[in-house]
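We read letters as residues; the fold follows as tokens. A sample entry reads:
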Amino acid sequence: MAIHVDFSDDTLFASYYRINRRIPSFCNEKKVYYLVETMPVFPGGEKVLKSSIHESICHIKQSKNIHKRGKVSIQFDVNEIGKADRIRVAKGIDEELDFFAQEIIRSLPNWESPGKIREKPVVVSFTIPIEF
């Protein structure tokens, strides 16, 4: 049986904290945006991002001798300091290619600047296709 507690009332929140001696885990989650005033900037721009991904795909195909083909959609967040975070497969095709697509994003350098709303850094989510 699930119990839903509405923490919009401060007294309920205070009661929960007094009883459990911890802040509810969902209060620590950061808001993720998809479109912001100032989007994150990759070092060198979008062309360099695409080129880096393409080079990584070629390197993986040659070094791992992969002949499979297909498109993997990878979702990731660019956090407040410009680091790719929470990398996950949005739409996969094969365990091996899914893994390599995630590794490609992990291997990218930090972004020059994070996304911003009113000059305040925020987490921005991206979904990009990686075609093998």
In short: The chain is about 30% helix and 25% strand. The CA atoms of residues 66 and 96 lie 9 Å apart.
